[in-house]
Amino acid sequence: MDENRVCELSQKRKVALSKDRHNIYALRFSPDAKELAVGFGNGAIQLLKPDSGMLKKDVFVGHRTQEAAMCLSYHPCRHSLLFVGNADGNIRIYDMELPSDPVSITGGGFTVEENNEINALDFSLDGSIFATAGKDKCIRLYDSRTNQLCNMYKAPDYSSGDDQSVTSGHTSRIFALKFHPDDYHLFITGGWDRSLMVWDKRMAKGARRAINGPHICGSGIDIQGNKMVTGSWAARNSLQLWDLRNLKVEKTLPFPASEAQGEFLYAARFCCSDTVIAGGSGTGSAHVINFKTHQVLGGIYLNNKAVQTVDTARNGKLIAVGGVGGNLHIAELL
């Protein structure tokens, strides 16, 4: 996108869905951007056509006894496979190319992550590994070909004399996990303990680096090249751009919020080479911001309801925002 061209956010539509009352916790565009997967608080998964907002199919209808679908990720090499991490510790995998309605193929060696709530799930660059993280502060690596657990970075147990160095692991629940899009091994996590940790999946235990960081309460980490954006649940200075080469804050970005509201971000993602989108509960809105000029290019407002998730596709030109009460909005950056 030409950095000299002034872009603006064009809201395409607000999409009403049958599961809206259960709230939207996760959104993910398919790799070709022809589908948008939506995860709800009762575990339901719906698949939409982004260009029209029409429902394509109910992947999983959900139930009042089911826990929320907290995170969604398409396999980067097998694009028909949608992976879902749930708040009950289950991982469900749906194949969209099955001739009948998609069914979960969870099993075949999969172990439920007992006593865990899965808040984050992401794939390595080549798709060979996917990782999960959540309430129990542990990070699990799975072989995506066999769905077998191949390593677990356990949270430190200080009462039993575990390693107490800052790189030993998170001390509170994890809400974000993101693999580097240009590196086969590195990923970054963040959560309630106000620390960002850089991991190398080749290492048997412990993080490579740990730094004091933002209070992450949702999918508030994204990576693009040598830059990382984080969205923190904080009243001020919540949206930050980092230089991954030195793991230092490059700049704090302006997020439109009054003193009374505060910013309080849950989600943040890159749109393209010079823009990010972020949203949360302070303003009940998401905004697209040019991080080079600090210009706010537009906002999507959820009627004072919290934004819980955002996603982008087509080099940032297609944007989805959802949260409390559903409130799915699909917009374009023109």
Q: Show unreliable segments.
A: none
Total number of beta strands: 27
Approximate helicity band: under 10%
Shape: globular
Strand adjacency order, main sheet: 1-27-26-25
| Helix and strand pattern | EEEEEEEEEEEEEEEEEEEEEEEEEEE
**Percentage beta strand:** over 45%
**Straight-line distance between termini:** 10 Å
Q: Which structural class is indicated by helix and strand composition? A: mainly beta
What is the averaged pLDDT score? 92
Main sheet? 4 strands, antiparallel
Give the C-alpha Rg: 19 Å
- Helical region count? 0
Describe the 3D structure.
The protein is an all-beta fold. 0% of the residues lie in helices and 47% in strands. It contains no helices and 27 strands. It has strands at residues 9-15, 24-29, 36-40, 45-49, 54-60, 69-74, 81-86, 91-95, 118-123, 129-134, 139-143, 148-153, 174-179, 186-191, 195-200, 209-212, 221-224, 227-231, 239-243, 248-253, 265-270, 275-280, 285-290, 296-301, 307-313, 318-323, 326-333. The strands form seven sheets. Strands 1-27-26-25 form a four-stranded antiparallel β-sheet, with no helix packed on it. A four-stranded antiparallel β-sheet has the order 2-3-4-5, with no helix packed on it. Strands 9-10-11-12 form a four-stranded antiparallel β-sheet, with no helix packed on it. A hairpin with a 4-residue loop joins strand 11 (139-143) and strand 12 (148-153). The relative contact order is 0.14. The model has no long low-confidence stretch (mean pLDDT 92).
